[in-house]
Design a protein that fits this description.
By secondary structure, this protein is an alpha/beta fold. The protein contains eleven helices and twelve strands. It folds into two domains: 178 residues, P-loop containing nucleotide triphosphate hydrolases (Rossmann fold, 3-Layer(aba) Sandwich), CATH 3.40.50; 88 residues, no CATH class. The strands form two sheets. It has an eight-stranded mixed beta sheet, sandwiched between helices. The protein binds adenosine-5'-triphosphate. Belongs to the ABC transporter superfamily.
Length: 361
């Protein structure tokens, strides 16, 4: 049976397809941070350039956690600080809540900055030892005019309660607390400004493992309760995997792989990511490794003179001529999974570090 299309008696307006243009909470494009330093020569000390961050793109939605992982010196902290404009980028765009931070006046920036806070690695050193906890938590309230004077004590007590500290902490000094408790104070201080986004820069790496778990749980609970978004910086893949929705792997100033957590942990494509996984302790001693070592051999090259081509080529067991001359673009290998490696297909078929990821997420 054939059917003929019916002609509508009344004209029907054709709606354009609805494309939900979602504005990310944070968008970073082409972030570059270079430092000019004096060289180490004895007589003529030339100016040299530290390539700390070299063209990083990131995007983060509300209530999401983006993990940033890589070895020491890869540019993770510099990325985190520059996203908050604590470090002036050499180039790049940083858009937060839809506004380009680099184009704002100082006053506008101060207003918006309150919504973006940072928690540091060193919980004790990041707190002024001469101030009581009450003074430390009251300071952001005063600076940002958030709470009338008569409500400040109540708000400080609310903040202490939020991070699981007793209210009598108000009159005590940081040295009277353990490392984990100091980190709770650091988190409360960041929350005092009522942010929507936190940079967590290695927030647990200075703490004992049992305390780490408690602080990670606290951060997860706070995220759910307050709808926060996190840029979670760490060198530990297990910790990053536990906390993150998305994971970006950074090497010598560049993102080499970025994906949803489950995709990256199930099928790491970049040899560097695979090497990082091989550095995670393997519970099964019968598992062998082709290269004997548990970590990527060699050191991260100096960021004063990053190698041409793929920056990982000096340590990559798969490196070929093309890797030494041509920089690989960050190409999509699966939905939302991007990798900067000329031979990503081959790497994923024949993981040069041999060991499948052992991190359970
Ligand atoms: N203020 C600065 N002046 C000069 N060089 C700097 C400065 N800050 C960072 N660097 C250099 O920039 C590079 C990236 O440093 P960064 O601290 O961002 O790395 P990271 O991955 O966070 O390392 P870590 O885990 O050790 O903190 C390093 O070579 C570092 O020495």
């Amino acid at each position: 049976m054939t059917s003929t299309p019916t002609t509508p008696t009344t004209p029907v307006a054709v709606e354009p397809p609805v494309t939900a243009a979602r504005t990310p909470l944070l968008e970073v494009k082409g972030l570059v941070v270079h430092y000019q330093v004096r060289g180490a020569g004895a007589v003529i000390r030339r100016r040299e350039t530290v390539h700390a961050v070299d063209g990083v793109d990131l995007s983060l939605d509300t209530h999401q956690t983006l993990g940033l992982v890589g070895e020491s010196g890869c540019g993770k902290s510099t990325t985190g600080r520059s996203v908050l404009l604590l470090e002036r980028p050499t180039a790049g765009l940083i858009r937060f809540e839809g506004r380009d931070l680099t184009a704002l006046s100082r006053r506008e920036l101060n207003g918006l900055r309150r919504r973006m806070q940072i928690v540091f690695q060193d919980p004790v050193g990041s707190l002024n030892p001469r101030h009581t906890v009450g003074q430390l938590l009251r300071e952001p309230l005063l600076v940002h005019h958030l709470v009338p004077k008569q409500r400040q004590r109540e708000r400080v007590e609310e903040l202490l309660d939020l991070v699981g500290l007793p209210t009598d902490a108000v009159s005590r000094f940081p040295h009277e607390f353990s490392g984990g408790q100091c980190q709770r104070i650091g988190i409360a201080r960041a929350l005092a400004a009522e942010p929507s986004f936190l940079v967590l820069d290695e927030p647990v790496s200075a703490l004992d493992v049992s305390i780490q778990a408690q602080i990670l749980q606290l951060l997860t609970d706070l995220q759910d309760r307050l709808g926060l978004s996190y840029l979670f910086i760490a060198h530990d893949l297990a910790v990053v995997g536990q906390m993150s929705d998305l994971v970006a792997v950074m090497y010598l100033g560049k993102i080499v792989e970025i994906a949803e957590r489950d995709s990256l942990y199930a099928r790491p494509h970049h040899p560097y990511t695979q090497g990082l996984f091989s550095a995670v302790p393997v519970p099964d001693p019968t598992l062998s490794r082709k290269h004997g070592d548990t970590v990527v051999a060699g050191e991260v090259p100096s960021s004063l003179a990053p190698p041409p081509g793929c920056r990982f080529n000096t340590r990559c067991p798969m490196a070929r001529e093309r890797c030494r001359t041509e920089e690989p673009p960050l190409d999509q290998v699966a939905p939302g999974h991007r990798v900067a490696c000329h031979f990503a297909d081959e790497a994923v078929r024949n993981n040069p570090f041999d060991v499948a990821p052992t991190v359970e997420v």
